[in-house]
Amino acid sequence: MAEKLSNLLRLVPLEPGDLPFHRALEPSDGRERPDIREFVQTILNDAIHLVDETLRTEFKPCSVKSSAPAEAKVQVFNHDITAQNISKVNWTGSRIPRHTPDNVRSEAWFARRSNHANRQAPGTANFTEFDYGLRADHSEHEGEYTPDVLDTYKVLDWTIPSASTEEEASFGDYENMTMSSMYNRRLRCPASAHSNVLSVGVLCTLSLK
């Protein structure tokens, strides 16, 4: 079965006109901007498919590493997607359309997996600690433990309305949703050079039923 490729979860950047309305963004040249709730839900659904299906079937183990001060070992996986397969992505005909990139390149994806005892103790962490470190203020925390991130700050913040009707009940699986645009300044080779990265992050907690 061919791999299902999301048009939103790609390494090629989204254009400002592909994003939901924000008063700080320039007009989208007449294109209708996506609804914020539908945009966020689509990205989260695509991310779940990536973790539950693509990671299991397409990613290959490549190394095992230590990650002090955690006691658990980290299994690293990788998955390369060819430019030919990326070119088959339905950019404009998907649930949330986006501009078709001018240049399509291959993508290299990596994933990490580790198993930790769910307790507040040296060498491990409970779920609340993981939630704080990995979801809440994710970009700021990434800058604290990633050596090549020089600084990071929030550029834009979207307000995501809560579900108000039974027709939107499926959206109720997601809680504590946030969508922000973050600026990261990173080191790149040569070490004296910098790269500027503007990213859009959608974060949430998922209610397991």
Short description:
By secondary structure, this protein is of the alpha+beta class.
Task: Tell me what the structure shows.
- By secondary structure, the chain is of the alpha+beta class.
- It is 20% helix and 29% strand.
- The strands form two sheets. The chain has a three-stranded antiparallel beta sheet with strand order 1-2-3. Strands 4-5-6 form a three-stranded antiparallel beta sheet.
- The longest helix is centred in the N-terminal third of the chain and has 22 residues, at 36-57.
- It is globular.
- It starts with 35 loop residues before the first helix and ends with a strand.
Distance between the termini: 29 Å
Structural category: alpha+beta
Work out the number of β strands: 6
Count of separate DSSP helical elements: 4
| Range of strand content | 25-35%
Poorly predicted runs: 165-170, 189-198
Q: Bin the helical content.
A: 10-25%
Across the major sheet, the strand order is 1-2-3
Major beta-sheet overview: 3 strands, antiparallel
The ordered H/E elements are HEEHEHHEEE
Overall pLDDT level = 80
What is this structure's SSE topology?
Blueprint lengths: L35 H22 L2 E6 L8 E8 L1 H4 L20 E7 L13 H8 L3 H8 L3 E10 L15 E15 L4 E14 L3
Antiparallel strand pairs: 1-2, 2-3, 4-5, 5-6
